[in-house]
Amino acid sequence: MKARAKVALLLCLVMLTTLVAGCGGGSTSGSKDVIKLGFLGAKTGSVANYGLPGEKGMKMAIEELNANGGIMGKQVEGIYEDNKGESSEIANIATKYITRDNVVAMVGDPCTGIAH
Questions:
Q1: Is residue 18, in this structure, part of any structural domain at all?
Q2: CATH of residue 90
Q3: Per the domain annotation, does 83 fall within a domain?
Q4: Total structural domains within the chain
């Protein structure tokens, strides 16, 4: 199980490193001190066994990033919602992340069947 956790952490770090490249543009006067990332995974329902390890991996990656100074000097904050394994929930959560939570990126559920 430790090997799986390390792989999940590595994948999250790769995704977050990619995020840094996308955040490298010029700064604006409305720059914030926190970079928000949203997690779109199932914590309950029939596919929770996929979402829960993903959430844990994202939390571990964020903890490690913040311990090392964050991304470009900004701390990273994770926002976690339960999509319950339902595509309608994914759409609602993604909309909330964009319109209310102002996340810069979302880490998605590995269950492609519910992402349609």
A1: no
A2: 3.40.50.2300
A3: yes
A4: 1
- pLDDT for the residue numbered 28: 44
SS3 readout for the chain: CHHHHHHHHHHHHHHHHHHHHHCCCCCCCCCCCEEEEEEEECCCCCCHHHHHHHHHHHHHHHHHHHHCCCECCEEEEEEEEECCCCHHHHHHHHHHHHHHHCCCEEECCCCHHHCC
Measure the CA–CA gap between 33 and 5, rounded to whole angstroms: 29
pLDDT digits (tens, 9 = 90+) for 39-98: 999 999 888 888 899 999 999 999 999 999 999 999 999 999 999 988 889 889 999 999
Residue 109 lies in a domain: yes
pTM equals: 0.69
Any domain includes 25: no
In whole angstroms, what is the distance from residue 60 CA to residue 98 CA?
A: 23
pLDDT of residue 112: 64
- Residue 50, pLDDT score: 86
Closest by Cα among 98, 112, 115, 109 to 36:
98
